[in-house]
Structures are given as C-alpha cells and as structure tokens.
Here is the input.
Amino acid sequence: MQNTTATERGSGFTAVVLMGGQGRRLASVVADRSKPMALVDGEPFVLRVLDQLAAAGCAKAILATGHHGAAAEAELGTEHAGMALVASREAAPLGTAGAVRLALEHTSADAVLVCNGDSHVDADLAAFVRWAAARDGAAALLAVRVACASRYGAVAVASDGRVLGFREKGVTGPGAVSAGVLWLPRAALQGVPLGTAASLEHDVLPALVAAELHALVVDAPFLDIGVPEAYAAAAAHFAACAQRRARPRQGLLVVDRDGTLIEERHYLADPAGVRLLPGVVDGLRAFAARGYELAVVTNQSGIGRGKFGQAELAAVHAELLRQLAAAGIAVRGIWHCPHHPELGCACRKPEPALLEQALAALGYAPAQCLVVGDKACDVELGARLGTRTALVRTGYGAGTERDGLCAPDLVVDDFAQLAAAVAAAGAGPGGGA
Here is the structure.
C-alpha cells in the first residue's frame, strides 16, 4: 500500500475511476482504446471526469485500468490539474467491485468516491462528497433524473434519501438512475477478497440497500457513452454543460408550497385545486430574470395521515409544474416530507434534512439561499441552517406575523414585493437588506 499524502489526509478526498471495461458495444467506433479513452474533440473522454474531480477538491485519483490499461496510463500520466494520478491495473477482469477492492491497496482513506470513466454528470461533486461524508459512515450514490430510465434501470429512493431498491433495465418511463458516482466506505468491500472478480451492481449494492444506502437525486445533464449513438452526442453534451455553467447563478429560493406558491387547501389531493397565488408569477419571473433558481420544500403529512397517497401528490405536483412552466418558470426540484408529525422524522420542517438535500443536490451553500414561506416552521427551517428568511402574508402568513411566532429577515405581501425588495437591496437572496 502506498503512503497516504498530506493532502489526502487533509481536505482532499480520494477517488477511484473505473476504466477497465472492454466496451464491446462501442467497439465498432472505438476499437483501439478503452471506452474512457475514447476521443471527444481530440481528447480522451475521461479527461472531463478528471477535470471535474480536480475542481471538486480530489487529492488523488486512482485509475482502475485493465483493457488497454498500459496505453491509458502512459497517456494520462501521474498528475492532472494538481491531482495525483495512481494506476491500479487488473491483470485479469475483476468486475467493478473487484477493481475497486484492488484500488483500495493504493490508499488508506476510510472512504472513496467511485466514478465511471465513461459517464459524466454535470453535478456538483464537492457538494455530493460533503453530503455523503455526513451520512455517518454509510454508503451513498448520486442519482440523476432522466426522461427514460429503460437503458439504465431506475433507483427507488424514499423521501428521507434511503435507497429502497433498483428497477431492472428495460422498463420505460422517467425515473432516477444511478449517475455512476458512489461514496463507498472501505468496510463496504470487506466481503470482496483481493483479486476476486465481483460486481458492485450485483454483489455489493444489494447488501448495502439491506444495510443502509443513501441517494442524492439531482437534475443535471447526464451522459453514458456505452453505445455508439451516446458517444456521438458527447461533444454536444460537454458544450451544453459549459454553456449551462457559464450562466450566472445568483442564488436559490427555497419556497414552501401551500399558502406560499398556491392557495391553501386542506390536504390537497386533486390537481384541479392547484391555484397559483397573486404575485407568484410576476415575482418568480423577476427572480429568474436575475439568475435565481427555485426549489420547493413542503410538508405533506396527508400521506402519513392516510388522506392521500404518493400518486395523488405526484399529480398535484405535475399540475403545479405545468402551470409554472406555462408562465416560463422552471423548478429545479420538489422535496416533500410525507410523514405524520408524531413520528418525529428528520425531514419534516423545521427539521433541516430536506433543505440539506436540496442544497446538496443543487450545489448551493446556505449563505446563497433564501427560504420563503407563510408559517413559523418555514422561517425556523432557514434559521437552523443560517439562511436568509422571508415571510409572505399569503396563506397563514398574516396570522403568523400578527402572533409573533417567528423572526424572519423580510416580511412581504407576496412574491412580487419580495422580488422588488431583493432587487432594491442589490444582492442575491442570501444577502442584502
């Protein structure tokens, strides 16, 4: 085992980049090199993965090579953007789990970030590492929402972020799929003997689901170049990612649903009851025009109380998203707590779990965030994580203000007034007056 560097012991993390597969489905267009080394705009695909790791603060990337391994190692060298590169070449195919187990011989880190060298997700890996490392030694994966999960198989994720299981490939329809990025404690591979072939997908992940496996689900561009048509789209994928990152992001609005975005209705289960409140469209358009993004965090105890189910909630949210999209307003994600208040869960506002998930998934720090709602729990939620807070007088907001139940940074009539106040302050949602 190699000695651990000072950087590896410090703030940086260690990654294992899987590069050993033969890529038979891509052989018709890339025959002389491994899939991760397939050229995109004249450079190996895996360089974009290494760029992303280095930008996220990775101190050491262990290249788990195999097929065409010697050529890949010679081309990539021993350093990339200040990040050490270490080769871990399998003499015979070991599968994904066997390759990671072999790579662990090159680090003493308690946990490693495992990623595929032939796929790319334009997500904030540093935020994912911070989120995953806070899971008290549990394994975690990064998942991404896609329009059709049939090629990958979907990940079933509970509202608290626990992975419930995996759906087999071939089932059509939208879903969350693994982005090929795992936070893997060393102990998770203790059952894989060194030098033995094993699969993460079939031999390790099912056991982790039975124990404790978490998932952070993000909305982000994703590409796996395992088939020729996907490889042909790689240049366009990276161009779109660069354009996306070039857009200035001023901050994140984390907004309550009932009484804040839409009219308050008791245990809303019918999409026909979704009505945007006055000022919402004008206010959110003004925020979007200045580069602010929107996420929704909502308590939905009607599920835990047996008033409606997840299907009804999904229909309501689909109608909400439809109405906002028709007004030109995009929502980066909706996070909800389905539990009965008496359960004492960690995701019911003002508990911070859902907000932490949203910030990690979207790559924001609390200081960049403004939490908006009509109840004391919304304001307290933001206060617990140190964000700015705003109380709107819609819904229960006027009563909340009258009764002095919380101390928000801003109190406004509606979203239009909130947008004007933030614009007048000349700062992002997390700063200003």
